[in-house]
User: Which sequence fits this backbone?
């Protein structure tokens, strides 16, 4: 009996690190994303629905990106249309464009999984 319970405790402890890293985004990043998403989708759905679905989208994105990757890709995505030289870095760099393209694709997939209308 003791061997079984010890084995279960050890197995449970081994799964704890993976639970802690399932969503490694900072709370402020999650809140900011959800607030921006709610604002963008306010005409399409009510506050409760948009809060739930926007939270789902950021959770899906956190499965594919680390905090740093998300911040870099999101920044590039938001600033790529900035006019003049200021936006040139985000439009002209091939690595940045590739990151933005990947971010857009993952975003589309997350919207579909969370049943968000685009």
Assistant:
């Amino acid at each position: 009996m003791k061997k079984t319970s010890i084995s279960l405790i050890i197995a449970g402890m081994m799964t704890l690190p993976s639970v802690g890293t399932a969503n490694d985004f900072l709370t402020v990043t999650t809140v900011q994303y959800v607030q921006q998403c709610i604002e963008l989708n306010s005409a399409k759905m009510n506050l409760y629905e948009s809060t739930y679905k926007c939270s789902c989208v950021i959770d899906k994105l956190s499965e594919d990106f680390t905090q740093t990757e998300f911040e870099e890709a999101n920044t590039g995505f938001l600033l790529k249309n900035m006019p003049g030289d200021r936006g040139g870095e985000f439009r002209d760099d091939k690595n940045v464009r590739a990151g933005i393209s990947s971010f857009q694709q993952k975003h589309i997939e997350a919207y579909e999984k969370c049943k968000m209308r685009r």
Observations:
- The chain is about 80% helix and 0% strand.
